[in-house]
Amino acid sequence: MQTSLTGSLGKPGFGSDLRALFTVMWREWVIFTRYPSWIIAMFIWPLIFPMLYILTARALAGPDGTGMAVFMATTGATDFIGYIVIGTTVWMWQNIVLWDVGFALRNEQMRGTLESNWLSPTWRFSYLLGHTGPQIVSMLMFITITAIEFGLLFGIQLNGSIWMILLMMLAAVPAIYGLGFAFASLVITVKEANAFVFLIRGLVMIFCGITFPVSLLPGWMQSIAKWLPQTYLINGMRSAAFSNAGIRELAPDLIPLLLFGTFWLVVGYFTFLWMERRARRTGAIGQY
Amino acid sequence: MAELAIEAKQLVKKFPARPGTGDKGADANASPAPRRRFFAKKEPKAMFTAVNGVDLQIERGEIFGLLGPNGAGKSTTIRMLCTLLEPTSGTAQVNGFDIVKQANDVRRSLGTVLAGERSIYWKLTGRENLEYFAALYHIPAEIAKKRVEELIERMEIKDRSNELVEKYSTGMRQRIAIAKALLARPPILLLDEPTLGLDPQAARRVRELIAELKQEGHTILLTTHYMEEADQLSDRIGIIDTGKVIALDTPEGLKRRIDQQEIIRLELTGWHDDLADKLKSISGIENLTTRQQGEADLWEVNLHAQNSRLALPRIVESISGNGTRLVNMNIVKPSLEDVFIHLTGKALRD
């Protein structure tokens, strides 16, 4: 006589959830490497965007470059190209995270794979967190390529410690990705969020001083800049790069950055939980 | 009484009706919200009832077919049972677990194939897809490796298991989707339109597979558009229309319901709507459905009649003239499709 099945091969537990998380990362990385055009873009983009500002600065400095000395004195930078590259790299980092992590779930939704992931008993946040791992690796590659390209082509000279620059970037990870998590969850609900990306990157571009010191902004704009973590990241990276600042000197940028990071991680996680619950009521996971 | 694999009691699912889409089934007493003033009290949203009090009792080891036209509520019912959607009211248990309170246990008990071929990653190979989903279903690595190999063999994709899914045919992608559902060897399978869009040979292979899975002890809830498929595979069939189960029985039991009826099947050219009105007005004709045969002006018309002998002379009389030509006529035994038409007044693909 035929007997009916009652149990499954799955073994729930923390270890299984962790393995699932790493498998999501592996999947993301494999798919990333199967789009060669992204790798090509990784070599071209780091040059194109900062070049716009570098060439504008050269033009504005006058034929004999006298304007550049004024700029150096105002900013305290020893290398104007390095100064600009740090600002534009932070801008590109936030921009890529918003498009990439921010649209991670939405892209899965449009591909049709989000529901099949959602059917499994895995911890749901793994899908977003798992997307972030390979994204951080690809961003590290992007930033390394930026440093190599500008070092070789423009001979950027840094006075500070590379480890302090990396420390600032590490401290910015929770804030930048926390915002990405919150954004990813909202995109699933509202579907169309390009305007929000344009708004955030516009704010970073204008208020955080990607090519100029924030102190040059009017008072009310400086007040807004204080509420944007990218302001502290850019300032801290420049201090580490050009003033040889150590942890003590970087603390005024490092501490707010970590506080913003905690805030955005919590906001990101709870926005995700809210979205997940709402999607079960409305069916938003399966809707294009 | 046999043990139940799935039990749903008065499941209801309502969605806010999308403005301007004329959502079928939008509640009549909920009018579209008027333009709001800023401080005005919020008007209740118009709601669309997709599932309206579904009761199901599916026994362990059986294949249960859920039949219904587009928008009848089949997929919404499946989506509630697999925890993608929360019911507005009512309860359901899958493998003894509540679909809301014990959602993760329900997911562990289920293997689900949703309609459409995009439920797997096209930029991964067939093997990589299965390895990936095995981890999501918490299958220990050493068991997963063997299980993936076993399913690749079973689905007959061994030679191409290391190719990207984007290079596969629709039938192969569907086999990977089914293999994905089988990875954890779950006791219950939800198969939403598993043969939709497949060529006849691939569809037949999937049907054979479903029959094998029943033999292995899986309980299967199957939704389909294809009557023959439901008839051939299902132990019992539920017919769902406008969000309600309107009939539930074995295929034979359902057919017995219209044993007293005869189906007059006509093939004709020059079909027009006036003719439909004429035929429907003939005494003893209870239902009429039409289907165009290919792209030519050849139509199949099915008439449900209590007594074909009495109705035939008037049918022939109605057809003659007006550019209509009768090509063929048969009186046939009722099929499951005819039962469906009898119960819902429409063909399954309407």
Shape of chain A: elongated
What characterizes the major β-sheet of chain B? Answer: 6 strands, mixed
Report the strand count of chain B. Answer: 14
Distance between the termini of chain A: 46 Å
Counted by DSSP, the helix tally of chain A is: 12
Word description of this protein:
Chain A has helices at residues 14-33, 36-60, 66-75, 80-100, 104-111, 114-118, 125-154, 162-190, 194-207, 219-225, 229-242, 247-282. With 288 residues, chain A is mainly α. Chain A has one domain (40-281). In chain A, helix 1 crosses helix 7 (125-154), helix 4 runs parallel beside helix 8 and helix 8 (162-190) packs parallel to helix 12 (247-282). Chain B is an alpha/beta fold and 350 residues long. Chain B is built from 11 helices and 14 strands. In chain B, strand 7 (188-192), helix 6 (200-215) and strand 8 form a beta-alpha-beta unit. Mean pLDDT of chain B is 86; it is low at 22-31. The interface between A and B is large, with 42 and 56 residues.
In short:
The complex is a heterodimer of chains A (288) and B (350). Chain A is mostly helical.
